[in-house]
Fold this sequence. Notes:
The complex is a heterodimer.
Chain A: E1 5-7, E2 10-14, E3 19-24, E4 31-37, E5 44-49, E6 55-58, E7 61-65, E8 71-76, E9 85-94, E10 97-102, E11 106-111
Chain B: E1 5-7, E2 10-13, E3 19-24, E4 31-38, E5 42-50, E6 53-57, E7 64-68, E8 74-78, E9 87-94, E10 103-104, E11 108-112
Parallel strand pairs in B: 2-11
Antiparallel strand pairs in B: 1-3, 3-8, 4-5, 4-9, 5-6, 7-8, 9-10, 9-11
Amino acid sequence: TQLLEQSPQFLSIQEGENLTVYCNSSSVFSSLQWYRQEPGEGPVLLVTVVTGGEVKKLKRLTFQFGDARKDSSLHITAAQPGDTGLYLCAGAGGGSNYKLTFGKGTLLTVNP
Amino acid sequence: KAGVTQTPRYLIKTRGQQVTLSCSPISGHRSVSWYQQTPGQGLQFLFEYFSETQRNKGNFPGRFSGRQFSNSRSEMNVSTLELGDSALYLCASSFDGGYYGYTFGSGTRLTVV
């Protein structure tokens, strides 16, 4: 069974601060996806990383996939109140395994 | 283009009843997956369909079932509802099975009383 451990579970910071969310597993994933979910809505895809060591930047968000494709991190620079939400990492098993394994999520609150 | 549409948005059912949830994927997407989201367990995979065939199933009891129609629309059914089935049920579609990511619907909030 593939598991994804996400940390921290909760994060409350002030506007302008930086933060990092971690996603770790003992399993190898063919791709790692990050989603953001707001209350009452479904998750929205932010990025997909597929190559070990890959780094992707999306404005103030930086995503990294570990060399062994077992872990990933999301770094937000100069957080803004609009970044508030539930951040979820999800691993795709690959091959004929067409399911995503989700971490439990990091609930981020950015206070003005 | 239109997103993933789930109906209904909210549902209240009594223990022992059955329920059917509907999902219309993005046009052209042939893969549809269903997930259950609860505060304690997070998002858990129910099943995935591609071109009317179930390719993967999660660890849920047989009371949970689904199907996909020729137009890629999908339904999931839960029979003999239990209080623990109260959750947000999310449908997600992709072109190829989710390797590059899924587009999720807004979900159906099911409350079992």
